[in-house]
Amino acid sequence: RKGPLSKRSLPHISRQPLSLPGFTALSQEGSCCQAKESLSLSSTFRPTVHFYLLSESLLRVISFLHLNMIPQRLFFRFFPIMMASLFPMATGAAYNYAEVMQKALFFYRAQESGTLPSDHPVIWRGDSGISDGKDVNLDLTGGMYDAGDHVKFGLPLASTVSVLAWAVYEFGDALPAELLNEILDIIKWNIDYFVKAHPAPNVFYYQVGNGNADHAFWGSAEVLEEVMTRPSYKVDAGNPGSTVAAGTALSFALASIIFETRDPPYAQTCLNHAEELFDFAYNTKSDAGYREATGFYNSFSGFWDEISAAAAWLYVKTEDPIYLTKAIEGTSYWGKACRNCPEWDYKWTHSWDDKHYMAQIVLARKTLNPVYKESVERNLNYWLPGGGITYSSGGQAHLDQWGSLRYSSNAAFLALIWANDGLCSQSQVKKYKDFAESQINYALGDNPRSSSYVVGFGNNPPKNPHHRTAHGAWFNDIKSPVDNQHVLFGALVGGPKSADDSYVDDRTDYVMNEVACDYNAGFFGALAGLYLEFPGSAGSILANFPSNYFVPEQNRDPEYFVRAIVGSSSGTGYSIVTQTSNRSAWPAKVLSGMHFRFFFSIAEVIGQGKSIGDFSFSTGTNEGGTLNGPFLYDAGSHTYYLEVSFATAIYPAGRTECERRFEFSINGPAGFDPSNDWSYTGLGSGFTYEPVDYSGLTSNIPVYDGSGVLLHGSEPLVCSAICGNGVLDSCELCDGSELGGMTCSGLGYADGTLSCDGSCQFDVSGCSSACVDPNKGVPCTGTTNCCSGVGNCSKGKPANRACQ
Question: Cβ contacts of residue 417 below 8 Å, gap of 6+?
């Protein structure tokens, strides 16, 4: 796979003409096409002839490369394409594989931790885990969260990165440029994290976050650090972890290969880390220090499979024979098919724990030892119908209840890699490809349910995967809200627990509905292989994805708001009960200094010689709020507001975290009438405290963040003109007379919707409260624009009305 072909690797290439019984011989100078024209065969035998003719062509290409010392990697980059034409699959792909890959990579973006770039494609994700590593005085930000939780587990993350890099190595050049660039960015995002986690040759931080504490909380990643600390865990020379060290060395090794021509300095950095971590793993040969992942990601297969795989890919990269020797050494410790069997285990597939299925493919290529080829095909044959694995009646090859689709996808990925390799037994090529296609298509909808198992793709896809941030919960409750707020595009769910094709889209069923980084890795690799198999008919990526595919803002549940009721009311005052909420999910945010304003007017008592000094204000039950004011808002309408602020952060992580209760009272002199108070309008007398309840929500009590940015609600319009009796209302005329208090649409005293004849003419409710009219107080003529060109106000006023 790297460097010039050796004689040892091509022992059977003959320079003699290919001669088949009864066929015209093909001379070295002759062409395959000319020879084919000289043959007269029935259509029954043409596929066989096609194989022989193309095989001769391939042999001659190999001979040319060998004689001219052409690097092998240039040939093998195009070899899968030649093999695909030699063993074509169906005439067209059954699904848009490009779209599925595009969405599968979106899933990885949704998993990213750390400080996200400003152009991050997942708009419902924000910065998270930004303090990771501070407990050990390191920057351990970055990487990806493992699944629907928020732990950065080293072993499955390293496996994910290595499989994605392997997919690029095998099929990357056939991918659309947009997808290739995207997957390379995702790989680099995680490799950069691994670099941070490897601060010294024999030190590697393999985990950030405590699994038990993390799994006890159901909320978004962006608020996690308000809820719990995230400890960092390492392995070192005194407390080694050969499995995770070698598994990460494997990721670095593959990254060094795929970035070799794209970014040579970065590839060298990857190689340096790969070699150091490999030496650490090989020299210690112990998992004594790999403890914190116990119960989540135990290394059941031990560390020799990771050592073999890492060494094999380091040999591919460096051609240093010591790595090949160590890779082969590890095979002596691989698990056996049974206690006294000579064969290595073949009744599973590549996974986050077992890398020997990968290693034997690389060793088969680099050594040409038939023992590896036999082991590869023994495993793949096991997955074929009748080969030993259990098949559902709907066609799923079902290995295990946990992530059953993950395993069938991993097996499909291996099958496509091997089927496109020249070492594959020719009789098995089509079988392996058909198997891979059937398993991936099963996940995409070719199943008895006629439903997709990929979120956001195909017919009847899952809507409620077991994923905290996609759920968008604010109440620390897996069941509330009922449906996920976000579409986790591209996530492959676990799938059927048993080989019975049954499935329930239930977030609480984490066996069927778990999603994870390692689930999508082999799945993406298999999709890339299938995309290669159907050139020109495997679909295309979506335009404007994901930007045009999010829930429109107007269709989202409100995130920040105040719910309020009238607690009590008397002739001269009233009490208000409020609940200030942060149910943010686009993305979830921790807000300090949230505050709301309650607007009220005292215009009706001004004529009695009263003022704001004749009013009193008091507080009742509250949860950390402070009452401030009153503050004058608009002198023209004698409008004031009270401000209630909360010093402690409010964030969507539970009942006490996401909401704050506050009660207050306003009492005034005789004649005080709340009916014209902006914030009093529309308030009822009761609401519940259910976690999904929106009763009592009002837009007339606006809420702001700590910087004063309006989050939700609206303020009353500002009125500056004073006519007639000094009260500016919707019926004010320029001569000071009034129409008797008539209003239109309940919009209040400054809406300008009532003409002089008492009819409703037009609506300026869209005007900005900051609108200032340069013609205020000037009588309108016809439809003179008031506030023309200022703010959002360009509405006309009726004749004889003052611009307000």
Answer: 166, 170, 361, 525, 529
**What is residue 720's predicted lDDT score, i.e. its pLDDT?**
41
Query: For residue 144, what are the β-bridge partners?
Result: 112
What is the separation, in whole angstroms, between the first and last Cα of the chain?
79
Question: Residue 597: which region, alpha, beta or left (left: phi > 0; alpha: psi -120 to 50)?
Answer: beta
Which of the pair, 227 or 764, is modelled with greater confidence? 227
Name the token pair of 624. 């950390």
Rounded to whole angstroms, the Cα distance separating 136 from 634 reads: 54
**Tokens representing residue 479 in the block:** 């069941």
Q: How far apart are CA 110 and CA 193, in angstroms?
A: 16
pLDDT computed for residue 634 by the predictor:
87
pLDDT attached to residue 624: 92
What is the distance between the alpha carbons of residues 466 and 147, in angstroms, rounded to a whole number? Answer: 9
Using one digit for the tens of pLDDT, what is the confidence trace for 145-193? 999 999 999 999 999 999 999 999 999 999 999 999 999 999 999 999 9
Q: What is the pTM of this model?
A: 0.80
Q: Which helix (H) or strand (E) holds 330?
A: helix 321-331
Q: Is 607's pLDDT higher than 90? A: no
Q: Is the peptide bond before 546 cis (omega within 30 degrees of 0)?
A: yes
Q: Exactly one of 505, 557, 614, 623 is catalytic; which is it? A: 505
Contacts 24+ apart (CB under 8 A), 70-78: 70/4, 71/2, 71/3, 71/4, 72/1, 72/2, 72/3, 72/4, 72/5, 73/1, 73/2, 73/3, 76/1, 77/173, 78/173
Handedness of CA 601, 607, 610, 611 (dihedral sign): positive
Give pairs for 26-32: CB < 8 Å, separation 24+.
26/53, 26/56, 28/60, 32/56, 32/57
Q: How far apart are CA 205 and CA 137, in angstroms?
A: 12
Q: What is the DSSP letter of 647?
A: -
DSSP string, 380-436: HHHHSTTSSSEE-TTS-EE--STTHHHHHHHHHHHHHHHHTSTTS-TTTHHHHHHHH
Active site residue 149: yes
Could you give the CA distance from residue 685 to residue 669 in angstroms, rounded to a whole number?
Answer: 23
Which has the higher per-residue pLDDT, 386 or 53?
386
CA distances from 344 to 308, 330, 339, 378 (A): 14, 12, 10, 9
Using CA atoms, how far apart are residues 191 and 195, in angstroms rounded to an integer?
6
CA–CA gap between residue 539 and residue 524 (Å, rounded): 15
For residue 236, indicate whether it is catalytic. Answer: no
For residue 798, how many other CB atoms are within 10 A of its CB? 19
Between CA 101 and CA 654 the distance in angstroms is 36
pLDDT given at position 289 = 97
Place of tokens 């003959």: 14
The single residue listed with the structure tokens 């629907």 is: 148
pLDDT band at 281 (very low <50, low <70, confident <90, very high): very high
What is the helix (H) or strand (E) element at residue 531, kind and residue range?
A: helix 517-533
Q: What is the Cβ-side half-sphere exposure of residue 361, based on CA atoms within 13 angstroms?
A: 23
Which of these is catalytic: 66, 198, 273, 466?
Answer: 466
505 is catalytic: yes
Residue type, 287: D
Q: Which DSSP category does 502 fall into?
A: -
From CA 509, how far away is CA 478, in angstroms rounded?
A: 11
The single residue of 132, 149, 354, 437 carrying the catalytic annotation is: 149
Q: Are 534 and 92 in contact (CB under 8 A)?
A: yes
In 3D, which of 547, 804, 580, 601 has the Cα closest to residue 705? 580
Residue 580 and residue 271: Cα distance in Å, rounded?
A: 53
- Of these residues, 276, 345, 437, 514, which one is catalytic? 514
Tell me how far apart the alpha carbons of residues 307 and 151 are, in angstroms, rounded to a whole number. 25
Can 185 be counted among the known catalytic residues? no
> Where does residue 477 rank: exposed (0-12), middle (13-18), buried (19+ CB within 10 A)?
middle
